[in-house]
Design goal:
By secondary structure, the protein is of the alpha/beta class. Helices cover 40% and strands 13% of the residues. Strands 1, 2, 3, 4, 5, 6 and 7 form a seven-stranded mixed sheet that branches. The relative contact order is 0.15.
């Protein structure tokens, strides 16, 4: 009888745990990207983007693709052809950084964050403000040469595959990554761009960076929403067959 009672308790406890887990999953569902006309799209994206920037850390930690502690899928895998992997990224409000972490975890690669010497504040990123930093830089290309804390990676020569991540700004790669792309020699490396955006596609962002670099074997890139599920990122990585 006592045995039956304790089994019943066990089942009840399991049911409570499962219900709790289900609730958490719902809370972390990704936000929907608005489907709008091209003209309205750019504006609504940037509105959402700057609102996002104001929210940042709390929202990201709740609903971003939080990598868990798994063995890297590719690291130490003799069949993996990606070789040594570097994941370089710029992220103004954390979304691209979350994706970069998933890639680094999956590939067992090293992360390298591009940090502007003069970091962007929420005000700087506010495209709605006519005279904001991003608007001034967007209108005047000569202001897009952003100095980075470091644009060079230790032992860069030793990497075979370089992922490069950035947010989409005005349907293109954020210009913060430009100096890294221009200052490094990608000869002999596979380069795989990726980005996050509110709703714009990948567009020509990768091709434009490829031209800027002038070296490297650039692959087609991938665009993610602001808070993709971790599985979206790993499914893309699976599809690369690295
Ligand atoms: C200046 C600026 C311009 C943006 N332009 C676009 C755009 O053209 N299309 C779009 O879908 N999202 C746009 N966004 C939204 C960002 O691409 C999106 O929020 C991205 O996930 C931010 O990544 P991060 O958190 O790594 O910086 C823009 C954001 C900013 C700050």
């Amino acid at each position: 009888m006592r045995k039956i009672k304790s089994m019943m308790m066990g089942i009840a406890l399991l049911a409570v745990t499962l219900t709790a887990c289900g609730g958490k999953e719902q809370a972390s569902a990704p936000s929907q990207n608005p489907e709008t006309s091209a003209a309205v799209e750019s504006q609504s994206q940037a509105v959402a983007a700057s609102e996002e920037t104001e929210n940042t850390a709390a929202a990201q930690s709740e609903s971003g693709p939080v990598p868990d502690k798994e063995e890297p899928k590719m690291a130490g895998n003799p069949e993996a052809s990606a070789g040594k992997v570097l994941v370089v990224y710029y992220s103004a409000s954390g979304h691209t950084g979350d994706v970069a972490e998933v890639i680094a975890e999956y590939t067992g690669g090293d992360l390298f964050e591009l940090v502007p010497v003069e970091e962007y504040t929420s005000e700087d990123l506010n495209w709605r403000q006519e005279d904001s930093r991003v608007n001034r830089e967007h209108e005047d290309e000569s202001l897009q040469d952003i100095q980075l804390v470091s644009a060079t990676v230790e032992n860069f020569d030793s990497y075979d595959t370089v992922f490069i991540g950035y947010p989409i700004w005005w349907q293109n790669a954020s210009w913060v990554v430009n100096s890294f792309v221009k200052e490094n020699d990608f000869t002999g490396k596979t380069v795989i761009p990726f980005c996050t955006s509110t709703s714009s596609g990948f567009g020509d962002s990768g091709k434009n960076l490829e031209k800027m670099a002038g070296t490297g074997e650039w692959k087609d890139g991938e665009r993610f929403g602001e808070r993709p599920e971790k599985s979206e990122v790993t499914e893309w990585l699976d599809s690369l067959g690295l």
